[in-house]
Amino acid sequence: MSPSPVDRHLTALAAAIVPFRAVASRLERWGGQLAWHLGQGGRLLVAGNGGSAAEAQHLAAELVGRLRDERMPLSAIALTPDSSAVTAIGNDYGFEEVFARQVRAHGRPGDVLITLSTSGRSPNLIAAVRAAKECGMRTWAMTGEGPNPLADASDEALRCPSPDSQVVQELHLLAVHLMCEYIDATLPAVVRPFADTPEIIGEQMRVGV
User: Would you say the pTM of this structure is higher than 0.70?
Assistant: First the structure.
């Protein structure tokens, strides 16, 4: 009797978790760097296609909102939800430019672009990385197994050790949550403890503390 879909899927996920632990230490460093950058008024841009677009939005939502503990909102923009901008850029400049043009609009020197892709071969994400580098941004990629063009084009990459796109997406979600955990753990060293009044929150954001 062949294994059920549940057994096959969970077996594939479990097999990928062990080698994932070996590369996940990168997330602690990324989380710490993002805490310092975002806590001082910097910005994160995130992009992906399909299921990875949803995970890009998930990451931005956890930072603008919160993962668990109360804290100041952090500037994170997913480049996927604005259907008017995406379709206008795609119509006028081609689908390859849908993220790159937004990066040029929103990115500033020192900001961070995170791209998510199971294949690591999406031309529009590779174009976004090139645009980010032109803007003086740091570029980090979360991909499937390497080598792949997106990981190679980026400053740093987290390559998830599975040939299965579904498993890679699940590892990316785990990576998103772990990185947010590290951001929240580091943030108190960057900014004053989160205050419960809008006036203080607004002042912290205005002066970039």
Answer: yes
